[in-house]
Amino acid sequence: MAIISWLSRLAARGPATVFPALGMRGEEALYRLALNPRIRLVDSPRHASLLLVAGGMPPEMQEPLRRVHDQLPAPFTTLWYQSEPLLELQQADTTRVDSLDALPDALVDAHRNALGGELGVSPRLLPDAPPNPWQGLGDDGRGGEGMMGGVPYGRPMAMPPTDDLRDGLALDILTFRLGPFFPLWPAGLAAEVTLQGDIVQQLSVKSPPFPRPLAPVFFEARERAVPIARLELERARHHLRALFHALHLAGLEDLALDALGLAQSCEPEAIGALEKRFRALAGRMKRRGFFALHLPACGTLGEKHAETLGGFAARAAGIDRDARLDDEGYRRLDFSVISQRKGDTRARWHQRLAEIAQSLRLAAQAQQDDAVTANLEALETPRGPWRNEELPGDASALLEELLPGLEWGEALATVASLDLAGVSQWPRP
Amino acid sequence: MILDQLIWPLLLVFAALVLGPYWLAVLDGLAARSFGLAQAQSVWISPLSRGAWLLTQQTNMTEAPDWWAWRLAPALYLSLAAIGLALVPWSREWVATDIATSLVLWGSVEALATVVIFLQGWSANTLLTLIGAYRYVALGLSYILISMFVLIGVALPAESLALTQVVASQQELWNVLRQPLGLPLFLIVGLALTFRGPFNLADSTDLAGGTSADVSGPQRLVWELARSAMLVAFSGIATTAFLGGWLGPWLPGPLWVALKMLAVLALLAWLSRAFARITPERCVSLMWTVLLPLAFVDLIWAGAEALL
């Protein structure tokens, strides 16, 4: 008993290991926590001691949330940030936090208390039974042939296919559902995926990503003239946060945190140092193989999809279109459109990095000249053009055409290079 | 006699199996710090608190796993690492397994590791672990081939497949200088076989941890320990095959081996964090079209040097 107690105390000295289940408008919590060394965010619920539910959770997401909850190994507890605990957990030892500033300390305390036995272990919410009954059909009682195939518990078992998208080598087919809390693609996105080996054969989107809120300055810019420096800093912040996800996926954890740190520093008072810091980051990304080793030269957007997405994704595919050209304020700053040609995953990151550098340069220049926007009718958001009343909408359906044929890692790198979620009609708090 | 040929060598193997992963974790923490990653804890305490955390955590269950295979895979991987460490000669006398074909036995450890890693991913009966297992099997053969060619290269000047003879053959000149391609190729293979850094394709972030995505508690601790121990064994074989093993002035042989192993581990820990993860397709191309031909060149070089 003394040994267990000693081990628990030693374990509690480590960082709080947190699996974030992001709901609507929950990303701010993720970005704040990622930069805190006392918190370790993990990609699998099996690797966590804490389940953080951040943001609003629509009713249809509660069942998947229960499944994630039950995957955490004991002892664990849950913490709800700006979210209502599940009905079954309202009697359990859960922690609710509504302040972003209080969140890291609350997580560290919950971690220590859970390991120290001071918090009750979160109860299991689902029965420990197969989700579907045994089928009991076919040669081996599961509806397949020989040792393969069938749907033993209502889910397809691996079965050699007839076609292969890559090299003709037929491997087992595996169909599964992923999301809406898979942390390596946009929060809310759920899809049914069919893989052959590790090649995506088919992908069907079952629920789109949650709409992403933009900074309030983009909404203000549709109502009145706003300083271009503020707009451009928020644009750079948006792309740097996306870069954080891509670098994490590439295994470059230190650069991912550098990108996020830079995103958090995108404030008018720090404008002088930002360009230099970003150039250093971009140089390190290049030297450490982000482009040469990790990014695939695939995931090319056709003209139709590039048009649908608009914004940087369209410009990466050679469509020289940007609503900032229609703004007199930007024209006075000698704004010109940057574009690439290939439209693939690499081109999109080249484009985004170039646009971050451009935004930081424009912000510095606009701050010096006190430049403000002059067009209230059309606005280039980081996600694409916002003309009239039409905000950029969800574009996750294009994954169904874009991802088949890609290896799993290439597919995720492709998703990370895109902004698929629609823009929320409410600004970021 | 028994002390030199059995007790001391076995104690050293056991010490390397326990302390090696701890030192690797410390070196990894230092490497992380050198890349600017802030840490909440001292690098000396951090591995201990992580170990304690995993020990106090529940070992989870997935839906209908191959229970025995799943529980055994980490232990088997650790056993393979122990076999690898048993081959390392700490001095002319202190060798736990001093056989005439120790290089061949090391080759079999690398080959069996493929089976064990596949077992770990497949037996969990979950999708991301299975993809990790597939990936490793698809790439494992290319790693093993490179390793074998490079190790045949060091056997040629020794005219023996025994690691003690390989060390003895480096009395005049270490193989790291005699065969300059050998050590870099072997270290790359080491990273690939223990799936670390740019070659971490089996337990990668895009698979949320791959073969260990659905493992928790003590079982995960054993798996992580085994992965680290395998890299320690790799550093032991690299030290023996390329860095003159126990050879060195002033200090006792076992101390030289330990210091050289630590230097190799420090380099591998740094390399693990230095580069982005390579895509599987590029990894296959790199192995078969660049590194394997380089391993041939290394072998031809070693053969020509042995003839002269």
Plain-language structure description:
The complex is a heterodimer of chains A (429) and B (308). Chain A is of the alpha/beta class and 429 residues long. In chain A, 37% of the residues lie in helices and 12% in strands. Chain A contains 15 helices and ten strands. In chain A, the strands form three sheets. In chain A, strands 2-1-3-4-5 form a five-stranded parallel sheet, with helices on both faces. In chain A, strands 6-7-8 form a three-stranded antiparallel sheet. In chain A, helix 6 runs antiparallel to helix 13 and helix 7 packs antiparallel against helix 8. The longest helix of chain A is centred in the C-terminal third of the chain and has 25 residues. With 308 residues, chain B is mostly helical. In chain B, helix 8 packs antiparallel against helix 9. At the A-B interface, helix 1, strand 6, helix 7, helix 9 and helix 15 of A face helix 2, helix 5 and helix 11 of B.
